[in-house]
Amino acid sequence: MWTDAEWLAQVAFWAGQHALPISLVLQALLLTTTWAGWWLLRPGTLLREPRVQGILHTALGITTALMGAGVFTVLARALLMGPELGLVDQVFADALRTHVPPLALPVFALLTHFADTAVLTGLGIGVAMALLARRRPGLAVGWVAAVGGNSLLNHSLKQVFARTRPLDADGLALAPGFSFPSGHSSGAVVAYGMLAYLALRLLPPRWHLPALLTAVGIAFSVCVSRLFLRVHFASDVIAGWMSGSTWLALCILGVELLRRSAKG
How far apart, in whole angstroms, are the C-alpha atoms of residue 50 and residue 58? Predict the structure, then answer.
């Protein structure tokens, strides 16, 4: 009988061998789920009462925050408790290195730039200035809190866990500092997720679904790019996605709570 660690290593090896098609399938499923969720939860569809819509959206935000925090906690605990998670991560990374087509790597090297520090900093300043120019100070504060707060949170978490990065990066992306959780992953989730939220608040309805799908596509692409470029372990990327999702949900819940309080 295999132990749990041996079984996970076998799954990780298989996933590393088929990482590219698996990532494409997962992205398709994520985009399809986003599309279906938007059609179900948008105003005027199944639930026409605004108060019910507000309750449902709040419940969704709380659930997202709790699930993200829960998964992150499981990964963090596993990382601190022993070498098993690191061994599984290494098995996946080794399989990935030998089974990903080299021609795909430049594509991922381009995609990963969507969450570079310089890009997110410029985006953060530009969007904040645009919101202030439109006399939306509440949204500007929420945007800065989301993007800037996530950067501080990720830096703090990296210092706590102090995990060394993979040693076999291919050199197509610069990745200084510690590894857990992935800053590019959390940054992409928060920045582009918050942009989608702003689009829902400010843009005409015809732009809502395209904005959501674009945000999900970019965030997921950045996350998987960190794996294929081998600058992060799989658990780093998942932890970054989860911490980013938690922070994003909390920031949106906070902005919405303040907006409803001002109306009430």
Answer: 12
User: CA geometry: angle at 178 spanning 175 and 184, to 5°?
Assistant: 55
d(C-alpha 56, C-alpha 37), whole Å = 12
Convert the pLDDT of each residue in 171-227 to its tens digit: 566 677 899 999 999 999 999 999 999 999 999 989 999 999 999 999 999 999 999
Separation CA 11–CA 247 (nearest Å): 30
Buried b (16+ CB within 10 A) or exposed e, 99-126: ebeeeebeebbebbebbbeeebeebbee
**Structurally, how many domains does the chain consist of?**
1
Q: What's the rounded Cα separation, in Å, for the pair 182 and 27?
A: 19
CB burial readout 47-61, b (16+ within 10 A) else e: beeeeebeeeeeeeb
Q: How far apart are CA 107 and CA 118, in angstroms?
A: 19
DSSP 17: H
Residue 254 exposed, middle or buried by CB count within 10 Å (0-12, 13-18, 19+): middle
Mean pLDDT of the chain: 89
Could you give the CA distance from residue 125 to residue 120 in angstroms, rounded to a whole number?
Answer: 9
Q: Which helix (H) or strand (E) holds 164?
A: none
Distance CA 169, CA 257 (A): 43
Owning domain of residue 21: 4-263
Which one-letter amino acid corresponds to residue 10? Q
| Residue whose entry in the numeric block shows the structure tokens 């449902």 | 56
**What span, in angstroms and rounded, lies between the C-alpha atoms of 110 and 107?**
5
